[in-house]
Amino acid sequence: MDVTAAPSRVSLGEGSTPLVRAHRLSDELGLELYLKLEGANPTGSFKDRGMRVAVGRAAASGAHTVVCASTGNTAASASAYAARAGLRALVLTPAGATASAKRAQASAAGARLLEIRGTFDDALRLCRQLGELDGFVLVNSVNPDRVEGQKSVAGEILDQLGATPDIVALPYGGGGNVSAVAAGFAERGVAPRLVIGEAAERATTWASAIRISEPAHAAHVAELVEAGRVEVVSLVEEELRAAWRRLATSEGTFCEPASAAGLAVLLRLGIAGGETAVCILTGHGLKDTDAVDQSSARVVDATLEAVLAEVA
């Protein structure tokens, strides 16, 4: 399904994000490497593709409130699209476990934001219960409308590249995006090698967007693995950090930490030989500026001599 086919009045211009060649990393790794910049979506993450469909259909059904559990990006996206559709948004997040920028996005859009004393999985359990109430619609990725919208990224990659990539790499948090990407390629009749990176320390990882202990789509991802369509790689924290830094310093692509999981997988696997690979960078770096060490910034006198002394 083309995401633009969803109710048009809910759209914020999501989709059609850039696919850029990573020139330096391609040379270093021996790959034709491309980066799909999903942080260019309206609220800064891939969630917007599916949220437009889910919230649009919730509004069309007569719902008054959309609800979601979130580690941050879902909260920001659901809140923005609910405001666009004239609906209320109720967001449950684990206390102290989401990036401040994402909470700010949800608050700015007028969402009712509750931090619960528990995990993401506790929040999702409560939201599932809320979704059973009249007038409430759950808009986490367990809602099939979310997957329906998010799979459009696969078609965009094929159209922009003009070919089927050999490898597509992306993060694995809850698994909804993995399911959507696999479905999108299957609908186009192609099967690139899908490699997905999860944090080995799921419950405590620095990459907060994939800090999910019990992935909601784990069973479906396991089926994809069993069918040989997906490979899962568990990444230690330093692998995620190193890949995140490398994307920014080598290519100027500032993504949130979880988005670097795809590149971390490629680095782990050591794939080379001129294959074409696409890393889906799922969220913009401004979503989690707390991850950046800014201690190197210095205050100097407003003289040429002082500036040159720092850069000598």
Describe the protein in words.
This protein is of the alpha/beta class and 312 residues long. The chain has 2 domains: 3-45 and 146-291, Rossmann fold (3-Layer(aba) Sandwich), CATH 3.40.50; 47-142, Rossmann fold, CATH 3.40.50.1100. The protein is built from 12 helices and 10 strands. The chain has helices at residues 23-29, 47-60, 73-85, 100-108, 120-130, 144-150, 152-161, 176-187, 218-226, 237-251, 261-269, 304-311; strands at residues 19-21, 32-37, 65-69, 88-94, 112-116, 136-138, 167-171, 193-199, 230-235, 276-281. A 6-stranded mixed sheet has the order 1-2-10-7-8-9, sandwiched between helices. Strands 5-4-3-6 form a 4-stranded parallel sheet, with helices on both faces. β3 (65-69), α3 and β4 (88-94) form a beta-alpha-beta unit. It is globular, with a radius of gyration of 20 Å. The N and C termini lie far apart (55 Å).
